């Protein structure tokens, strides 16, 4: 049977610079200052107050040991009665957060809470005090607060319904920053801009725009990702604030990205084709089963039988004709030409792969 894919999404990422309609963007939207980044934090904690949807203490050993440890620190000895612990109101969770650049002591950050054991729902639970560690093992924040999942889960005797993920939630402003990440931003004499999409042409354009604005050579493109800035006694804050508002035209590699699982195709604006002829058609086979029941005569002494009836139809789509896509076409003309062939998304993916194999697609082809 012919498989009909989902609707193809074709997006032009930007217009080609040669079209005269290239879009200028701010430097702050395509580059970051090295050193000004987030840091990941992680911690292990307990969520209490669940309505019977927590971990099973008999199977979740880490939850039982953590609960005993918490109670002991609060002066409650339960080790002698460990086997009698049988509550489902507690869940072990992993707590993660991103520590923003220049976060100060006492500031608040959001955290994410995810179940670690066999808990079924964290809604309504309270996260106990949880230290959040950085990659160096130091505590940078402490988290606590009510967990909000935004999910709905209901269960009856013969059925259940779940919307969202009730075993993962968030706590807005749920952690307090206890340690700052040192970064002497104002005292540095040299900074580097890091492009989010490395490209040599874009890096050169950024350096040229900065030098034209500063009136001297202060920026140098050292590689496709990096632009070095020599501050030379300038106010680093004010100079960067001026630089990030400058506008440049980012360049991009001609690329076609295909997501076969969903039938999605995304093309860059610089994609071009050499002249190529295309003929496409699918072989469709339809098999229809219409079994017929045969009854014997009343006095024949026979038995009822089922006689199979099979109808096979073959459609080789011979009406499809050869189409020609001219060389040097723009993205719009390429999309119009492919749509004019009357093909579906799955067939279009095959066509693009075949054009690339023939050497007529002047772009990178990335299949995911």
Blueprint of the fold:
Layout: E1 25-26, E2 31-33, E3 39-48, H1 61-73, E4 90-99, E5 108-115, E6 126-133, E7 139-146, E8 152-155, E9 160-163, E10 168-177, E11 190-195, H2 200-214, E12 219-221, E13 226-230, H3 236-243, E14 247-248, E15 255-259, E16 264-267, E17 272-273, E18 276-278, E19 284-289, E20 292-294, E21 305-307, E22 310-315, E23 323-325, H4 331-340, H5 345-357, E24 361-362, E25 364-367
Parallel strand pairs: 15-25
Antiparallel strand pairs: 1-14, 2-11, 3-4, 3-6, 4-5, 5-10, 6-7, 7-10, 8-9, 11-13, 12-13, 15-16, 17-24, 18-23, 19-22, 20-21
In spatial order, strands of the major sheet run 3-4-5-10-7-6
Poorly predicted regions are 1-21
**Tally of separate helices:** 5
The assigned structural class equals alpha+beta
Largest sheet: 6 strands, antiparallel, barrel
- Gyration radius, in Å: 32 Å
Helix/strand order: EEEHEEEEEEEEHEEHEEEEEEEEEEHHEE
Strand content: 25-35%
End-to-end Cα distance: 24 Å
Number of DSSP-assigned strands: 25
Shape: flat
Give the helix proportion (percent range): 10-25%
Whole-number mean pLDDT? 81
Task: Give an overview in words.
- This protein has 368 residues and is α+β, with helices and mostly antiparallel strands.
- Helix content is 16%, strand content 34%.
- It is built from five helices and 25 strands.
- It has helices at 61-73, 200-214, 236-243, 331-340, 345-357; strands at residues 25-26, 31-33, 39-48, 90-99, 108-115, 126-133, 139-146, 152-155, 160-163, 168-177, 190-195, 219-221, 226-230, 247-248, 255-259, 264-267, 272-273, 276-278, 284-289, 292-294, 305-307, 310-315, 323-325, 361-362, 364-367.
- The strands form nine sheets. A six-stranded antiparallel beta barrel has the order 3-4-5-10-7-6. Strands 2-11-13-12 form a four-stranded antiparallel β-sheet. It has a three-stranded mixed β-sheet with strand order 16-15-25, covered by helices on one side.
- Strand 4 and strand 5 form a beta hairpin.
- The longest helix has 15 residues, at 200-214.
- The radius of gyration is 32 Å and the shape is flat.
- 22% of the residues are buried.
- Residues 1-21 have low confidence and may be disordered.
